[in-house]
Amino acid sequence: MKTSDSLKTGAFVVFLLSAVGLSASPIDVSAPREVIPPNIVTSSNKPMIMLTASKDHLLFGPVYSDFEDLDNDGVIDTTFKPSFRYYGYFDSAKCYSYDNSSNQFNPSALAIQTVVSVAGVSSVKYSCAPSNSHWSGNFLNWATMTRLDTVRKMLYGGFRSTDTNGSTVLMGSRLVWDAHSFVKYYKEADIRDYTPFSQADLTKTTGANANVYAGLSICVTGSSEDPKLSQPVMRLVKGNVRFWSTVEIQLCRWAGAPDNYNQGTFGPKLARFYSDANKGNGGVKHEVSIPTRSADGATYSGIGPDLNVRVKVCDPNYLGDEKCQAFPPTSTTNFKPYGLLQEFGYPKNSGDAARVEFGLITGSYDRKNTAGALRKNIRDLEDEIRRETGVFCHSAGAGCAATLSDGRTTGAGAIKAFDSIVLFGRGAGNSYGGGSTPSASGETNLPAWGNPIGEMVVQALQYYAYNGTTPSPTNPTSSTNDSNVGMPVATWTDPLANSAARVKYGNGICRPLNILAFSSSALSFDGQAGVPFLTLPGATAGLDAFVNKIGDAEGITGTLRSIGSVSGKGLTSADDQNSCSAKTVGTLANVNGVCPEAPAMGGTYQVAGAALYGNTTKIRTVATPPSDLSKVENALKVKTMAASLSGGAPRIDVPVPGTNPRKYVYITPESVQSGGKVSAPLTFASISSGPTYGAFIVTWNDVLMGGDYDMDITGFLRYDLGRKCRVAFRVGY
């Protein structure tokens, strides 16, 4: 998946909601439009959607990878592209100043918009006036946003570090000092259009590029190693330290005060590979030494080189293109950012029906390998937002009533659950504990790992089937770790039960039932859904039978596919050595290991079988159904949709010239240790690219899971297209 596809997820989710009969408008949340979903016969029966979502550590990676082709022009985009509009907490159409006193970015001007045409295609470039020390919001989105930030932004407007009546500040994800930190690098001549820096400001008199403009490096990292308290920081460095986040133990630490980092360096080999025309062709050299704050930190007007990733949003003076809602609706001073949850799940007035009722299941920090935990029963968001101010009820000082008139407790729910996702288990010893292999990693080992989305989809089907007695709820028996980070756990209730508070939504068994799965990365630990699946009605054939129907229908059965294993779903020590290679698929149900991202992590295709079951089998048997139930199309069947943020996998898509439709050669770097065990890919960074070549550096951790999660192995890779379109490789370590 290309980054452009990943970042279309917001539009994709809107499309999915349209598929259940809803249309999204960024103009006015408080004026929902009633529409008739396509699979019911009366407008009174409103849809339910159960979200199933990852909490896997890969959510903390950069959403813009800089090794993918954003605009499908056949050239890999290795850095910021001014004509591409980047999605994130900052408004691309604004310019921002940094306030040292509040440690945040504030909107200060509208961006200069210039139409740019390339090959007959027009786009808009957003820049800032050189007379001001401003940052382009578009540039800051490219530089700072993680996958988790984009999920939070799309769903509810973003993580609020300040949430009061009249003021909202969003904060990026809580990174720590490991390889989840990432560096962005820009060295084009127009850098003053997007940052407060001129070329002269960034030119050093010492180092590998003495007296030569070598660009600006920005490392986005954390303020501490405490995953619950750390705040995201962007560290500004003069020149080229593109691989500052690929060193050992602690990443993006200053060599001098205040960090006094002395555990690694870049070295001359990296510097040479980066700049040599027949290797990296980077145009300038990479620095040899770790930067110091005093000599190498980039500052302007007393600001920098460490800036917090916090931004004031919905400022009444600069609303611009932001999605903001007034609270109360007549207010001209208090605006709050919103996302799809508020737009569809928050009633216009107290006592009204929302357009959708949402529930949420996410992965668990107490049981990482098996499904997840229910965070919110399917209801509207009245219990999560204070109606008078728009403040989230779990925010400090929100002032929400402890309970609503329908008995619901406030201050928990979906938004709090997403806000509580952290890099669980990172400790003061610069480690997640001992490293592990997938087969040896039990339920409580390395809680930040694991993405069993297929099992969560089966769990969501069980939830829809739950009648108050059966099937038995499957929340983890322990919630110690979840509670430690503030992750709510909800007691299951019958989602189809009719009550006085929910009569406005229609008859439960007549309403459209949906699952929307959000996945941060490739599936992992995802082969244990067969037993819980058998608790569902009409499931006696077993989950494998539904999975294999997909394999047959899609023409996968009996063909060669690049996968980890075809030997079954159970993770064994042999699976720790799985790598991506062509293997004959006997049955799709026996495939284990998703390529190219995670061949050894136990991902399966059970999610496809579960979706097929939900779409073709009634989730409940009703003893005395309503007389008109037979007229409701797809009644009691569950439609499953998915939105993936798996772009950023270590893979290069090389287009084959002259092919129509376009064909690709796929290059996937892997590191296999002695004994055959697979290493974890960390940084996959581009140096330069052109129509006929690309140059990259890739690093791996020495274990597949956990450990210190830092660079232990480095590889250099370059491909070139020859006259006959053959791909030639050069790889070094």
Total strands: 27
Percent of residues in helices comes to: 10-25%
- Strand composition percent: 15-25%
Low-confidence stretches: 1-18, 23-42, 725-733
Shape: globular
Total count of helical runs of at least 4 residues: 13
Structural class: alpha+beta
Oligomer: single chain
Structure description:
It is a single chain. The chain has 733 residues and is an alpha+beta fold. Helix content is 14%, strand content 21%. It has 13 helices and 27 strands. The strands form 9 sheets. Strands 17-16-1-18-21 form a 5-stranded mixed sheet, with helices on both faces. Strand 26 and strand 27 form a beta hairpin. Helix 9 packs parallel to helix 13 and helix 12 crosses helix 13. It is globular. The two termini are 27 Å apart.
Jot down its keywords.
single chain, 733 residues, alpha+beta, five-stranded mixed β-sheet, four-stranded antiparallel β-sheet, 13 helices, 27 strands, 21% strand, disordered N terminus, disordered C terminus
Q: In a few lines, what is going on in this structure?
A:
With 733 residues, this protein is of the alpha+beta class. Helix content is 14%, strand content 21%.
Describe how the helices and strands are arranged.
Layout: H1 3-6, H2 9-19, E1 48-53, E2 94-99, E3 104-110, E4 112-118, E5 121-127, E6 135-136, H3 137-144, H4 147-156, E7 160-164, E8 167-171, E9 182-186, E10 216-222, E11 232-238, H5 268-275, H6 293-296, E12 306-308, E13 310-312, E14 324-326, E15 335-337, H7 340-345, E16 357-363, E17 372-379, H8 414-419, H9 453-465, H10 480-484, E18 513-519, H11 530-533, H12 543-553, E19 560-563, E20 581-584, H13 606-616, E21 638-644, E22 652-655, E23 664-667, E24 680-690, E25 693-701, E26 713-721, E27 727-732
Parallel strand pairs: 1-16, 1-18, 18-21
Antiparallel strand pairs: 2-3, 2-6, 4-5, 7-8, 8-13, 9-10, 10-11, 11-12, 14-15, 16-17, 19-20, 22-23, 24-25, 25-26, 26-27
